[in-house]
Design brief:
Rossmann fold, seven-stranded parallel sheet
Length: 253
């Protein structure tokens, strides 16, 4: 098992990529703490891991709030006595151009996607620095590298995540901490149907557009989770400051 005796904290772990990663990490031997704002879903994910023989806890936390990020880290350390892996996965998305995007929608995407990544990393780093080892993985996006249509605040926030990754890698590499980000393309998660609805597209038409890439399909949460596992494990021991694109060839096309 690639994560045996490791403790991981995953934000936005109640569904989609976060849930898939939590389940996979547990199967690979990690003790897993997941955060989110939906207690019912969070407890269900933790129970799923426990029923499969793993170790997991759910911590209700809003990554926009520094005190709740600190609390999540403290509870993880209390439960598992260490923190080896942080996956900053929590994110929100509204399909808007800069003309259509409200100030509230802009602030929410910046606060969750970028500020939340900053706050949770800030809370987690002291214990990792003290133990002289750790891995931090941010959930970026292909649209944080190349941009996309009607997604101005999302693209800006994810572009910030990509460069935050590189800056943190420079600052903390000599402290034994690796920092990378995963940059998924379109993935089959609850976010996609909502995007299609807001854009006024039929689901079939929306999927056809998403599949317009070399591999001819969208990704699955499990596929992204496997890439996150690679970055979390010693398989990527000489990687830091990298933006790993997992998008079925979307950026290559």
């Amino acid at each position: 098992m690639r994560l045996e005796n490791k403790a991981a904290l995953i934000t936005g772990g109640t569904s989609g990529i976060g849930e898939a990663t939590a389940v996979l990490f547990a199967k690979e031997g990690a003790k897993v703490a997941i955060t989110g704002r939906n207690e019912k879903r969070g407890e269900a994910v933790a129970e799923r891991i426990l029923s499969d023989g793993g170790e997991a806890i759910f911590i209700r936390a809003d990554v926009r709030k520094a005190e709740e990020c600190r609390h999540a880290v403290e509870e993880t350390l209390r439960a598992f006595h260490r923190l080896d892996i942080l996956f900053n996965n929590a994110g929100v998305f509204f399909p808007r151009t800069i003309v259509d995007c409200t100030e509230e929608e802009w602030d929410l995407q910046m606060d969750v996607n970028l500020k939340g990544t900053f706050l949770m990393s800030k809370a987690a780093l002291p214990s990792m620095i003290e133990q002289r080892c750790g891995v931090i993985i941010h959930n970026g996006s292909g649209w944080g590298i190349a941009g996309g249509d009607a997604a101005v605040a999302y693209c800006a926030s994810k572009g910030g995540v990509v460069l935050l990754t590189k800056a943190m890698a420079i600052d903390h590499g000599r402290q034994g901490i690796r920092v990378n980000c995963i940059c998924p393309g379109d993935v089959d998660t609850p976010m996609l149907p909502e995007d299609a609805r807001i854009r006024g597209l039929k689901w079939e038409d929306y999927l056809e557009g998403c599949a317009d890439r070399p591999m001819g399909r969208i990704g699955t949460a499990d596929e992204i989770a496997k890439a996150v596992l690679f970055l979390a494990s010693d398989d990527s021991s000489f990687m830091t400051g990298a933006a790993l694109v997992v998008d079925g060839g979307g950026l290559a096309d």
